[in-house]
Amino acid sequence: MMTRRERLMATLRGQPVDRPAVSFYEINGTESRSADDPYNIYSDPSWAPLLDLARDQTDRIVMMGVGYKITAPNPVWDNTSIETFERADSRVTIRNLRAGGRVLTNRERRDRDINTTWVEEHLLKDLADLQAYLQLPERETCGTVETLPVLAMEKELGDSGIVMIDTADPLCMAASLFDMADYLVIAMEEPDWFHKLLERFARCVHAKTAAVAQALPGRLWRIYGPEYATPPYLPPRFFNEYVTRYVRPMIASIQATGGYARIHAHGNVSLALPEICAMGADAIDPLEPAPQGDVELRDVRQKYGKQLVLFGNLEIADIENMPEKQLPKSLKNRWPTARPVKDAVLC
Hints:
Strand order of the largest sheet: 1-6-7-8-9-10-11
CATH class of the largest domain: Alpha Beta
Structural class: alpha/beta
Shape: globular
Radius of gyration: 21 Å
Number of helices: 13
Number of domains: 2
Strand content: 15-25%
CATH topology of the largest domain: TIM Barrel
Helix content: 25-40%
């Protein structure tokens, strides 16, 4: 019998495992249950059995961002004012950023009973806002990586799981500044300007990825953001232009120190899978079947299973909505037997 950590690492290496690893994604048993914060949904007692189950029995993958101990101040914040206030059962945060003679406003809302931050007003609304934003001075990309939180979590996990370093790609950082409709207009009609924004973020992201990979080698990473360039949002040709060009250097830095790069992309990824493989990714999630996405596990496994570790394709909606007698058959059809190749599946 493998330990949970051994099972996860063998899966990433494409080695034989005693059974497919089972992960509850962001639920891993490390969640704070403190009731001091009214916006901490995990403080509700109804979560306790699930959190305990995840801690005690699942193959735990704990996502963590990694920062610098000390770095130069971000000049964007020097031009930003922030206001936060409570409204009914919500917390609202408004940021006003002075750039290029304009005031750019971002408004976000967090509700007490939902673990989501809603963006009610995006910072950039049009090309003029983007051009103003690009006039801001850039943050210096030097610093010493803060490794202690990751090392402390790994010590806490012991043989029960692993840490996964979590990072956005340049596309996620750029696209999320816009409302989705405005982003699509800029990305398709103003590619030169949009590349300037991507390059701005890439300079920071690439330097940080290389520094963190050197300081914390051999870890699993999750890179999120490529879904912004998948159908129905953008035609397939934009995936190479807005994802591959900027994510390939991240993957190279991660793999150069023995790490594993997992691409996170919701929705319709079937047309993007060849490109994801071509840029050298080690894994992909969440591989959603219809109607959430457009792939089935058997098809992806047949075409890409020897290169990619496949995470997902078991939907919580099935567990919630499928008749009890039908669920075991559905899971058996989707969940293949683990083999000593790089396609052992995590769910």
